[in-house]
Automatic annotation (TrEMBL):
Domain GAF positions: 36-191
Native source organism of the sequence: Streptomyces sp. R35
A Pfam family that the UniProt record links to this protein: GAF
SMART domains: GAF
Protein name: GAF domain-containing protein
Amino acid sequence: MSYDPPRTAGRLLLTPEDKDAPARVRRLRRLGLGERTEPAFDAFADRLAEVAAVPYSMVNFIDENRQFFAGLHTPDAGGQGVLPAIDAEDNAAPQVGRYMTRDYGFCPHVVVRRKALVLEDVCDYPRFAGNPVVDDFGVRSYLGAPLIDHTGIALGTVCVVDVEPRPWGTAGLETIKSLAAELVELLERREGGLGF
């Protein structure tokens, strides 16, 4: 099974081809990740938001069809659990939830690239400015890093998002990469039975 994004003629490819998706899904299932929320992931997302001083942050696991925000911080509902999202099943209008299709957002790019992505002003990048989250949700800046475990699989991302352009700079890049490495270490401790 592979994920082949739609390729509309005359438009930039919004979602990258993800040849690693089947292996990622197997690994996520083996780890028990990507299907349910856990307070530890929400707490990690809260910490991401606090460190970056942003309204939105996520711990995101990605399968063939959708993104799942296992950890979510938003300014609504006391910071947790509410984010406008697109229903993965029918691409309906924005809804509240923890799921988003792979065509929305920038995390699928991070997972495929296997490198952090810094977008200080999304509108400065034609490939990303056309992403539906820009118009539908007002996203203007993004900073995300992949969660690459010891098997070499990019399980998902940690990311922070703002509705204003942000000069993330080298410090922001190093911070998000450090936090991603920290979460991977926690996931590996959990896998080894050492808790999270």
